[in-house]
Amino acid sequence: MLVGLLSRATVIVALLLVIAIWQVIGFDTLFRALRNWRPRVRAALPVTLALVPVLIVNKLARQDLVTISQEYGFRVGDLFWVIEGEFILLFESVASTPLTQYFSFIYIYGYAFLLIFPVVMYFTLRDSTRLRRLLGAYALNYTIGVTLYVLFHAFGPRQYFGSDVETMLYTFEPSYQLLTREINHYTNVFPSLHTSLSATVMIFAIRSRSQFPAWTPTASVLAVSVWLSTMYLGIHWAIDVLGGLLLAGTCVWLSCRLIGRYDVDSHLQPAYDRLAAVVDRVKTTGDSADERGHR
Amino acid sequence: MTGTGPRSSGRHSRRTFLATVGTGVTLSTSGCTELFTEVSSWGDQLSVTITTVPDDDDRQSNGIFKHLESSLRAAGIDVTPELRTTAQFEKKVLIDQDFDIFVGRYPGTPRPDGLYELLHSTFAYEPGWQNPYGMTDIDLDDRLERLRHATGTDRSAAIESVFDSFLDTKPFVPICAPSIYYAVNDQQFTGWDRQSFRTRLGYVDLDPAAAVDQFDGLVTDARPMQNLNPLATHYRHTGAITSLLYDSLATRSGAGLSPWMAHDWEWRDGRLTATMRPDLTSHDEEPVTAEDVAFTFEFLADLSLGRADSPIPAPRFRRETSAVTSATATDDETVEFTVDASREVATSVLTVPILPEHVWRPIVDELDEETASTATWLREELMNEEISRVGSGPYRFGSWVQGDLLTLDRFDGHFSVEDPDLPGVPVESLVLRNASNGSVAIEMVDAGDASALVTPIEADVIGETQEMETAARIHDPGWAYYQIGFNTQKHPFSNHRFRRAVASLIDRQWLAETVFHGHAQPLSVPKVDSSAMDDYAWTGADPETPFVGTDGEIDVEAARDLFRKASFEYNDSGELVVDD
């Protein structure tokens, strides 16, 4: 079932990407950038590598992180309930099946697309700063987000309001829970990473509106839809969404301050040289072995 | 921070907030917590914390919680929720006994002497499903003692006398017993109707189809994938999965007991003598003898094995072990129990899992002095998920992905593999997967991706079983029921008048019809297997504390009158006030 869900998600997101590439970037531009991939990948590599350990830690130690959060974290869910009460149930008054379908689609597929597409888009720019800053902001969002998840242990509003949230994602589409469970634990709600990452993309889209004018309104509509979907589907408190927006602002600001200032790449030059030498040597040995084999 | 949602007034909400800081949020320094608790008592409105589980873990508990919350609010009582994952909830309520009111599902037992365990004051300060309410009522104790020793027709009378006292004193409010259904796939196994997933035999007394060599079970309660320790009360519901790893002398079969490690037993004059099969071995190839049985009872009665000044009993199996005065191995295959209870009560000691001495004794011996003699530390240590899972049961621990997946492998050295009179262990491995929710599980069983959903189908998705094409739905009597429990050690829950008033705020009939979609039987007394239940069967209302209101909506004035009659007062803003 999970495999089926994943393949469906892959197909849908790929389709969205193709349409967006065609409309926003143009295939010619993308192919030109791909032909000249080396400097671009090299520029983006250090910041991407920074993200890897966080992803690995979260994947391998998720159960442990949840346990730590359970033992030592601040339990804030009950407090959120007291503070904002039944605010998110307001969405129930405008609920309809098409709206639930729309927000479920946005929450799963729209969100994935929103995060992946700008990476492709900024990749086509000659100046890699934008791409690096976006990736840097992703890494920061994720790192700080996971830290806050350990620090704050809270359940989302649907756990309190239960069947009152008739538009709950898993009531509408129970199998999605198999998918989301692979990514997150249900006590991780503050802040909303869906909100912070989509807001990050939106801020970047606004900043790059002169280069990609078609993307700015698209990204904004999608991002705002993602924020609303998290509440409409009963997954997040309004407080989580506000926390997510704050986190997004902080991460974009930090990323812009940090990235483009230091020339990390030049420090990596010796490493690249060594790598190239090793590759060369492997190649030569392989070739000569081949030759020997042929003889 | 001051805007607190649509229904609260400013004054009220500030206090609510402070109360929450005091009770709901974990602060690292206890001094700080105490300070905030003090602050919350400046207010005079009664504020209660309701401890329960999130909707994902149990939608029916959530439904009862919401009903209780709105009813209490309407009666002028402030409410703060306290949500915990199921294991953490049970730790909080059963082990730490740190709660005001809880809403939860009690695993239940058909045995009427379960009432003794549930309500006798001897267990008031012990962790586990024994008297979590901290109830200490001398009259009730007397009736429970009589129940424990009564036989024949006296027994029915004794049960009724306990029920009468229960209805008056309301240590907890039984809500309803959910109808238990499972989804099973007939193409993979047959014989589903012979036993129940509540018991060991439910997993082995099955006939696999040709070429099926694995049982693929699904659960919606993932606790067996987090901790398989038979002592960890907060991770066990019926304990069926751990009973596959750990054998007992007899095994539950239908409504009775069948021979298991013991092939025979005899009851005479307060003495129960069990004769075990010869040549039993544990998963690590060590012999398991009557000595291990004697050790198990010594250990369960005192986890410190004599190292603490006073015995520290295990938090599970108290009903069984508390009746045992001594358990002695007279030879390798014979155990003699002296039991201070009737025959009906005594035979249940045969169902206690046998913990091999060579595994458990060293664990206790190696503990430092302080841990071994401090009850809370010792219990925590021995309920650990990492403790060896070597037992002697039909399956041995294979591997797990914690929280997601558990694999058990057939133990080829098990006696049931050879014995033609026993079901044997039909398939090589038993896999349990966490299905996230009932809808997904039903779909997977129907599609043949799993053999069965072995945890009860939640009431709100039972309807979905009608769309199944290949899978079947089976019914199981089940003894679990939902309840609202009071911490009777705390004011004002210590006052039975207050508890009775709260009981009148709960519309059990309405809950069974809506929250349980009609798949539940409302209860006025704890559910047990006895003809005495007939006279106390639900007739639309609790005989002592009928619901004040209609269709789940309380009659506010009538409700407030109940509290006034119980000597509680209301202030001008309609809040129920308590003196500190």
From TrEMBL, chain A:
The keyword Iron does not apply. SUPFAM superfamilies: Acid phosphatase/Vanadium-dependent haloperoxidase (SSF48317). It is found in: Membrane. GO terms for cellular component: membrane. Residues 130-256 form the Phosphatidic acid phosphatase type 2/haloperoxidase domain. CDD domains: PAP2_Aur1_like. Keywords: Membrane, Transmembrane, Transmembrane helix. Its main location: membrane. This is PAP2 superfamily protein. It comes from Halovivax ruber (strain DSM 18193 / JCM 13892 / XH-70).
UniProtKB/TrEMBL annotation, chain B:
GO terms for biological process: peptide transport. PROSITE patterns: PROKAR_LIPOPROTEIN (PS51257). The keyword Iron-sulfur does not apply. One of its GO terms (molecular function) is peptide transmembrane transporter activity. Coiled coil: none annotated. InterPro entries: SBP_5, SBP_5_dom. The keyword Membrane does not apply. It holds the Pfam family SBP_bac_5. Keywords: Signal, Transport. It comes from the Archaea. Residues 257-575 form the Solute-binding protein family domain. Belongs to the bacterial solute-binding protein 5 family. PANTHER family: OLIGOPEPTIDE-BINDING PROTEIN APPA, PERIPLASMIC BINDING COMPONENT OF ABC TRANSPORTER. This is Extracellular solute-binding protein, family 5.
